[in-house]
Amino acid sequence: MLHNYVKIAFRNLVKNTGFSVINIVGLALGMICCLFIFLWVQDEKSVDNFHAKGDNLYTVYQTISANGKVDGNYSTPLRVTPSQRTGFMLEDVKNAVPEVKHQAFYATGYELPWGHPETFQRGDTKFKLEGSRASSDFFKIFSYPLLAGNAETALSDINGVAISRKMAERFFGTPQKAMGKSLRYENRLDFRVSAVFENLPVESSLKFDFLLNWEAQKTKLEWSSNEFRLFVELAENANVPTVENKINRFLQPRLAKNKGVTTQIGLQRFRDQYLHSTFVNGKPEGGRIEYVRIFSGVALFILIIACINFMNLATARSVKRAKEVGVRKVLGSTRSHLIGQFFGEAVLLAFLAMLLTLILVVLLVPTFNQFTGKQIPLPFAQGSFWLSLLGLTVLTGLLAGSYPALFLSSLQPVRILKGVLRFTRGSVWFRQGLTVFQFGLAMILLVATLVVSRQTNYVQQAHLGYDRENLLYIRVEGSLANQRGYSLFKELASKMPGIAMVDRSSEAPHTMGFVVDDNDGAAETATGSDAINWEGKEKNASVGFKPTSVGFDFVRLMNLKLAEGRDFSRTNATDSSDAFMVNEEAVRQMGLKNPIGKWVSAWQKKGHIIGILKDYHTHSLHEPIKPLIVDVKEYEYFGVVLVRTEAGKTKEALASLRKVYGEINPNYPFDYQFIDQEYERLYRSEQVMAKLSNVFAVVAILISCLGLLGLVMFSTEQRTKEIGIRKVLGASVGQIVTLFSRDFLRLILIAILIASPIAWYAMNQWLQGFAYKVTVAWWIFALSGAGALAITLLTISFQSIKAALVNPVKSLRSE
């Protein structure tokens, strides 16, 4: 019997070639989208899932409540030792909490001086490499394979450095030859290779080519921030809430007693951190997981649209299959046999569609990786992948073939063979409901595409309050870290071709200033010595400042605007010692009236406000503008050199900078970043979402149009004689086309009306992740609806004009 089913199915496919091609292409388009989204989602979920101790590996985070506001972050509470050396309050948590088997600090973040590539040198070979700092238990916790050395000693030596295979091969040829050898760091310190680890897999959220002992940061290098994360490995079957309570009991006596400010420690499973890193009410809940959910929903939507398309096309052919059903039933075929026959045909079509899908996926995966910025391989060697494909194929076939199988198998043979085949009002409404549902989903995708594209363009093109074009920065290092070297570089570079202006800042403009709060301990990096106070400050007032230090020409170089007061000036001898500038947001939050001339104290320095900067963005538009406080430090041992190039002369400017840099700083490779390119990187997720939304919306509309074509085909087959009679009675082609269009356009209008509020709600929820965003304007729905109607008319017109042009003699011949 199975052999007979397959043979009949192939005969039907060959006999109705056009119908079969449309069905297979429609299903294949849906499957391609599903498969690509499946691969992307799997890749996202695979991040940090390779660690052997993953079930017991946690990230420590802190929840801070201050003045009615609750916030959270992954930083670790600071303390200052009696020797005034900065440290962490949780350094001894492993000894205080028995359930903590190992603990490891790890440095991260733009705010650190090592947030940029650092220079390592051996002889004449030197490279800039990304690295970090970690404490001695790091390799005991994480499953980064060591090719040389061991986890016990890899980071135990303050003079040691653990390097990657890539780094070992660059400097020494092999990992084994690297062990015990010396590398020059930043042309001022020597570190001995204590371990070589395998190159990090793409599934790792932590990215580094080398690791220094974190104690070396406190004793041998400059310490500037607490942007360290703490990871802990808990004992098997440890109760997480109990461990959190014990850590908090250990922490609380060490915290500064600030009225209205509380700090609580929480634990998040490490492998969840990549997808759940956005804090909501002080706890990590949102983040990239939102995109996983969105695109998983999109995959389901498109698969449903493809299945509805199949149902409509199969129903459109039901009149021609009805007599076959009648004859089969007369000859003794049961309904279950017929259902098996039609389900078998649907699954066969799904398998052919999957075959086409695999061919196209192999061809398109490089483009998809370029779109998403990933390196997703096709997991053909994994049995689970093939099982997933089999499941998707069978599910699609069963879902797509369900309605046609149940409908056709229910037909009564007596009515069929008499030539009387009529569909009940319920079945007609069901098919029309499928069309409404199908175009409703397509409408939601169209609106989402427009909103995401608008928001992505907005955040990339929005004026930030400064001119980011023709602006680049160079890290302060080597000779640039001293006054003479920086002054000479600025003097020589300013005179070179293509250079408009040179100045400095403690951070790059798009990552300016970590938060410092005036209430000791209330913000990310607050300590007693860093507290910021001001004239007229109310008791217990709390403002999360973003402090930064700049050169005298910073405001002019950045093209910032002054709302009030004046800029820093070399002609004012006191500007270096007691002058501050703040932005408008700082004035608002400080509650200052007539702020010019009011005193401010920061960085153990007391001075006066000389100018108010108009607000400008120092981070992405996901965040609101923060209060900013600025002072002048023309010479610093860290930070960046900012360079404004002349428009259209980038090539000359880079050549000039390379020449001057090579003369003044010969021991460091010349490295630079353009601000506009760095700013765009802040929105990689939104760019990927915009691109994928565009593609999926086009696919959804294309599949929906195929489904609509099926419904038009069904309608014309049902009304063939009606069309013939109308033509005999004088109806024109235009009137017949209008007759068909009216019914279908009504369905599309219903779909638009139902989908619009759903799309409005969904996109407003998505936009909540941005502090600065576009509005979901009415014209977006009007444009999406007009586009859907136009595509509908185009699809309907093709088939209805074809039906209207048929000779009525042929339509009525049987009468």
Automatic annotation (TrEMBL):
Residues 298-412, 694-804 form the ABC3 transporter permease C-terminal domain. One of its GO terms (cellular component) is plasma membrane. One of its GO terms (molecular function) is transmembrane transporter activity. It comes from the Bacteria. It is found in: Cell membrane. Residues 20-249, 440-655 form the MacB-like periplasmic core domain. The chain crosses the membrane at residues 21-41, 294-314, 342-365, 385-408, 429-452, 695-714, 744-763, 775-796. Keywords: Cell membrane, Membrane, Transmembrane, Transmembrane helix. It is a multi-pass membrane protein. This is FtsX-like permease family protein. It comes from Larkinella rosea.
